[in-house]
């Protein structure tokens, strides 16, 4: 048990066998050993608590609680008893009792840093934010360390979050937290990144976006180093709140020059470009465009910038998806504004085809492309799918047999196409016989794909699981259309899939869904009057 490492009193040697029994799960022996010890040392409180833990773990909760309360009533202050009681109350799911325990300990030993910090954490577990604030300040007065001061600040923030009255949150809790942090700023006592993060959080919640931006851009912002681009992300968020689109644009453009694969910056870049166009923004004469540097404020500049990112990507040693997806996103936005044809960015169908050729073997390819399928005319769906299938290296063992992938990359490509077919409604348009034939084909592909996953752990998913899932969804469609036997096929396929991928959550959720539907139907049938 964790408590053993902190035992410092002379009773350590006597208590050690009980700890060992409890650690090894031998609770009955722990109780017997505690009883032996208590016969010789009746006032050894920790032994009583350890016995109570043994009783709790053997199902004798009432006896354990009575014994624990007997010790707690004595208001112990030794580490062994306090930590053992904490463990016991946690196992009883009674965290509120821990607060009373340490409240008593703090009264008896008012200058104990350890007991005050345990009291603070006990309040945190039960959500007593007001008492957390008081405990944090009491601790800071005893030991003036920054973390303890900011525990109190964080407690105020938690009070503001949990307050039912939002007005109270913004007029009392957050302003008080702000003043507390400002005091530390004026005294130049801010030491850690977390303290700056708290200050930023307070200003953001108070909607003091300019002040928050000044903090991030200033000297305090230099402490924001633990996360990649943490400072830039916070600046970007504040620029958006303040509608400072030139700075938004310049910063996102600069960050994309560093990393042209970060999708969030593409979205911000496009948002800002079109905002500036709508506002007819022009750069100030003989001055910098913005605090963050050069600004793009026309469609021509945006088109050129994206084309440059694609050119740069072609020179990269690692293929980057961002620039290609950004081009499709720009086409979508230009189409929405009714001016796509003017800029000759290319045919979306061809661009998506080229994207598939480059990244089709990645599991993310489907989720990337599904966002842009609305750029395709519905009359081109079948042609598009056929075009994708034509470039996948599939091979048949003999003429007339099903062409199957020879490696995992080809399997991933084919899976992507199958999922796109489902998304575009190609399966939905099939007749019943065609759907059943598609189910048989998908299951053949699923079972063939299991060969590639023979070395997978039980916690890993099989590469071909999506074939099975798609087959099940087709059968569910048939069931909802009135084909009663389809549901039993669903269950059979899902149980088969689960036997190969025990950790597949989608298999489990579908099974739960179907079993619940069947149970509901059975219940409905059983309660229907015979004359009905």
UniProtKB/TrEMBL annotation:
GO cellular component terms, A-Z: NatB complex
Subcellular localization(s) per the UniProt record: Cytoplasm
Source domain of life: Eukaryota
Main location: cytoplasm
Record has Cytoplasm as a keyword: yes
Keywords carried by this UniProt record: Cytoplasm, Repeat, TPR repeat
Pfam families named in the record: NatB_MDM20
InterPro entries for the chain: NAA25_NatB_aux_su (IPR019183), TPR-like_helical_dom_sf (IPR011990)
UniProt keyword Repeat, yes or no: yes
Function, as annotated: Non-catalytic subunit of the NatB complex which catalyzes acetylation of the N-terminal methionine residues of peptides beginning with Met-Asp, Met-Glu, Met-Asn and Met-Gln. May play a role in normal cell-cycle progression.
Subunit: Component of the N-terminal acetyltransferase B (NatB) complex which is composed of NAA20 and NAA25.
Record family assignment: Belongs to the MDM20/NAA25 family.
Protein name, as recorded: N-alpha-acetyltransferase 25, NatB auxiliary subunit
Organism from which the protein derives: Amazona collaria
Organism classification: Eukaryota, Metazoa, Chordata, Craniata, Vertebrata
